């Protein structure tokens, strides 16, 4: 087995163990492989090992990979592409045209543009609202107090499908702070589900904190480093 497929297998078994420890079915937790900065060859290796969900942070880099793999004879089953990075309004069009999901929506203007630019022949674009849980001014994401209103605005856009929320909690070694953030997100997720029963995605947990995220109800972990190794350039 290649290093990459070993690392992927390790991550999948960690997800399974974390699910089992939390008395959850492992199928409730999806693995998004975050391939930012990594070459197409590594995405193909992960695909060959069974991975189908990939996340990218940069518009140009992501589109190039999507286009390359859409013409690759080795790729026979569809790949689900998630855009998870900051998105500026002048870059929404290629994202609306090429990605299946955008997880980093934190304002209505971007959502409206994606809605208007989503091509007719494609299914609605799946959306997660990014929540700035730690209230850090430097972080992107909508505040807890604004998320309910943003959800109601986004859910009214016909070419978008509201699937849930995404968050990147403050990096900390303090398990109490981390668990508290994950629990707040889980409560918000359940609250939104009351109004929008189709919501099924609580995207939280990365290489360093996917186990406590799963313990606190995550339905999608976004894992880069633990699968692909350290990033090829600073990201
Ligand atoms: C880079 C990134 C990840 C993956 O982080 P790792 O620590 O490498 O697993 C997850 N989510 C987002 C939004 C990212 O930008």
From TrEMBL:
Q: Name one Pfam family in it.
A: Ala_racemase_N
Please list the residues that carry the modification N6-(pyridoxal phosphate)lysine. Answer: 36
Q: Which InterPro entries match?
A: Ala_racemase_N, PLP-binding_barrel, PyrdxlP_homeostasis
| Highest taxon listed in the record's lineage | Bacteria
> Known SUPFAM superfamilies for this protein?
PLP-binding barrel
User: Which UniProt keyword terms apply here?
Assistant: Pyridoxal phosphate
Q: Which residues form the Alanine racemase N-terminal domain?
A: 27-231
**Record's family?**
Belongs to the pyridoxal phosphate-binding protein YggS/PROSC family.
Q: Which NCBIfam families match?
A: YggS family pyridoxal phosphate-dependent enzyme
Known role? Pyridoxal 5'-phosphate (PLP)-binding protein, which is involved in PLP homeostasis.
Q: What is this protein called?
A: Pyridoxal phosphate homeostasis protein
Q: Source taxonomy lineage?
A: Bacteria, Pseudomonadati, Pseudomonadota, Gammaproteobacteria, Alteromonadales
